[in-house]
Amino acid sequence: MSNTNETLFGQGANTYANIFTYMGLPLSRDLNDEVDAVVMGVPYDLATTGRSGARFGPTGIRQASSQLRWEEKRWPWRFSLADKLKVIDYGDITFEDAYHESMIEEVVAAASHILTAGKTLLTLGGDHFITLPLLRAVHKVYGKVALVHFDAHTDNEQREEVINHGSMFHHAPIEGLIDSDKSVQVGIRTEYDYDNHPFTVLDAAWANTHSAEEIVAEIKKVVGDSPVYLSFDIDCLDPAYAPGTGTPVAGGISSDKAMQIIRALGDVNIVAMDLMEVAPAYDHADITALAGATLALEMLYMMAAKR
């Protein structure tokens, strides 16, 4: 008979049984020396301006990740993730329902705890506002960072209110969390202030007509050797690949191109990452949740390949 823990989590978990964690990873908050990376969920969507439902994103992504467990070595990588990177699932951050400040405080505290312990953090959302408290935690450990941001929207609306998933990258530079001159946004295809925008933009039309290698070259040119926060809003993908999100916009990049880009970011100094805005209620056949789970896995493999 199999060991109980192995049956519930890790190698003993199969596609359909005991889908509790992302990729069947151990459910743990033990940040011991063996742990390299942490997957954390934040089920919050009270800052959304479109269709709500991203609070169910972390669970949806975890459930969809069960379809990825069978492949010991994720194609096209030539190694098993577990051989190079010890990853745990930290579970979801809990906070007082409907209280923004409670979520913000809990996320900053948990992320700070994980990052201070020297672990790479991958957060599953949730609406994109969550990235602001995550950046506050990152700043405590790494100082001002560059932002590599995949999205249909710049999320740079100049709103006075801070709690909004369309304005956190207006407030982040004001708070001194990110370096605008070294930050780049990929896949943008909605209106922004073209003359005064603070970040480099590789818009969707440009990204769709250039190769992943050319896109990555531009990203590296902007960020240099700065510490980088990687944030991926699932609506960067065209709705054909990700219909299950609150603010879908036609004309995005494909899931294949997104994966190619992420795979090639291994020599960028990425210190933390997130995957946001999966809203399962608007999904069909788990298309979006599976895309989110797969992109998150590529991020982990990309970090593992550095070792």
UniProtKB/TrEMBL annotation:
<keyword id="KW-0464">Manganese</keyword>
<keyword id="KW-0661">Putrescine biosynthesis</keyword>
<dbReference type="Pfam" id="PF00491">
    <property type="entry name" value="Arginase"/>
</dbReference>
<dbReference type="GO" id="GO:0008783">
    <property type="term" value="F:agmatinase activity"/>
</dbReference>
<dbReference type="GO" id="GO:0033389">
    <property type="term" value="P:putrescine biosynthetic process from arginine, via agmatine"/>
</dbReference>
<feature type="binding site">
    <location>
        <position position="155"/>
    </location>
    <ligand>
        <name>Mn(2+)</name>
    </ligand>
</feature>
<keyword id="KW-0378">Hydrolase</keyword>
<feature type="binding site">
    <location>
        <position position="233"/>
    </location>
    <ligand>
        <name>Mn(2+)</name>
    </ligand>
</feature>
<dbReference type="GO" id="GO:0046872">
    <property type="term" value="F:metal ion binding"/>
</dbReference>
<comment type="similarity">
    <text>Belongs to the arginase family. Agmatinase subfamily.</text>
</comment>
<comment type="function">
    <text>Catalyzes the formation of putrescine from agmatine.</text>
</comment>
<keyword id="KW-0479">Metal-binding</keyword>
<dbReference type="GO" id="GO:0008295">
    <property type="term" value="P:spermidine biosynthetic process"/>
</dbReference>
<dbReference type="InterPro" id="IPR005925">
    <property type="entry name" value="Agmatinase-rel"/>
</dbReference>
<dbReference type="InterPro" id="IPR020855">
    <property type="entry name" value="Ureohydrolase_Mn_BS"/>
</dbReference>
<feature type="binding site">
    <location>
        <position position="235"/>
    </location>
    <ligand>
        <name>Mn(2+)</name>
    </ligand>
</feature>
<keyword id="KW-0620">Polyamine biosynthesis</keyword>
<dbReference type="InterPro" id="IPR023696">
    <property type="entry name" value="Ureohydrolase_dom_sf"/>
</dbReference>
<feature type="binding site">
    <location>
        <position position="153"/>
    </location>
    <ligand>
        <name>Mn(2+)</name>
    </ligand>
</feature>
<feature type="binding site">
    <location>
        <position position="151"/>
    </location>
    <ligand>
        <name>Mn(2+)</name>
    </ligand>
</feature>
<keyword id="KW-0745">Spermidine biosynthesis</keyword>
<feature type="binding site">
    <location>
        <position position="128"/>
    </location>
    <ligand>
        <name>Mn(2+)</name>
    </ligand>
</feature>
<protein>
    <recommendedName>
        <fullName>Agmatinase</fullName>
        <ecNumber>3.5.3.11</ecNumber>
    </recommendedName>
</protein>
<dbReference type="InterPro" id="IPR006035">
    <property type="entry name" value="Ureohydrolase"/>
</dbReference>
